[in-house]
Specification:
The structure is a single chain. The protein is an alpha+beta fold. About 30% of the residues lie in helices and about 25% in strands. The protein contains seven helices and ten strands. The protein has a six-stranded antiparallel β-sheet with strand order 1-5-6-3-2-4. Strands 7-8-9-10 form a four-stranded antiparallel β-sheet, with no helix packed on it. The chain is rod-shaped. It starts with about 30 loop residues before the first helix and ends with a strand. About 20% of the residues are buried. The mean pLDDT is about 80.
Length: about 280
């Protein structure tokens, strides 16, 4: 059966393709982290460019997706810290627009775009990278170690790329900043995003050690006496059996002798003390 065609005047919505790399992983928990990072990048742009060169640069979260060389081309610079490796990329048109703002010539980016990459451009990109890494740490995602340049360790297919969209509507500037994270860094971000759960308290009955919860019935055999069977049959209430005072007693659990203890008297009561394992 053929699928119905859309009638004139009806709108069709394109369904976003499902990224299988996101299955089973809580990427939705990183939305707050993306917003925080975009806010810190926005403050960086505000202090360094907007206030100094009257720019109107704004930053917003652009989502997370898998690194694809055909789409995410360009110059990446890799860094490593105690968590793992990550790489940074600022699209060249955006980087040159920021460089032009830095030199007070907002309209000079187009001319620089036609020229080859220069050492000034590379140094400027390196400075921005360090400030972006500081913004990453300010979001609470830093690993507590300084970042070191890692030559040659560029992103690979499957690495996750977090994008920050940067725009200046007055000048028509549009571009993206990309941060590519390896698996170690992605695990660190998930650990930082998932709220820590306090361990559930054990049930009341488990709060006490097992040896203190297990009731055991103990019998103390203080004395024993052998009598002929016919005398046992003639016993009556009130009869007195002659026994010698016991100095020791056997301690039994389910008729199994476990200890030998001394018999003592305290306050008119017989007590057991000095328990010794039975041989």
């Amino acid at each position: 059966m053929a699928s119905p065609r859309p009638t004139p005047g009806t709108s069709t919505r394109r369904v976003a393709s499902l990224d299988p790399c996101t299955l089973g992983r809580p990427f939705h928990l990183l939305e707050d982290f993306q917003r925080r990072l975009a806010q810190h990048v926005g403050r960086l742009l505000e202090h360094r460019f907007n206030q100094r060169s009257d720019a109107q640069l704004r930053a917003s979260a652009g989502g997370i997706s898998a690194f694809m060389p055909a789409i995410d081309g360009g110059a990446w610079r890799s860094y490593r810290d105690g968590v793992g490796s990550l790489a940074l990329n600022i699209e060249r048109p955006l980087l040159l627009a920021l460089l032009a703002h830095h030199y007070g010539d907002p309209g000079g980016a187009d001319a620089m775009l036609q020229a080859p990459e220069t050492e000034t451009e590379l140094r400027f990109a390196g400075t921005l990278h360090q400030q972006l890494l500081e913004a990453l740490i300010a979001c609470g995602a830093g690993g507590g170690h300084a970042f070191a340049v890692q030559p040659g360790a560029l992103p690979r297919t499957g690495h996750r790329v977090l994008r920050i969209e940067v725009s200046d509507d007055a000048l028509g500037v549009r571009g993206r900043i990309g941060l590519a994270f390896d698996e170690a860094w992605m695990a660190h971000l998930f650990d930082s995003a998932v709220p820590a759960r306090a361990p559930a308290p054990p049930p009341a009955e488990l709060a006490v050690p097992l040896r203190e919860r297990l009731p055991v019935r103990i019998n103390a055999r203080i004395a024993s006496l052998e009598l002929p069977f016919d005398q046992v049959l003639r016993l009556a209430p009130g009869d007195i059996l002659p026994i010698r005072p016991a100095g020791t007693a056997e301690v039994l659990v389910d008729d199994v002798r476990l200890y030998r203890a001394r018999v003592a008297e305290q306050g008119g009561l017989l007590c057991l003390t000095f328990f010794e394992p039975a041989e």
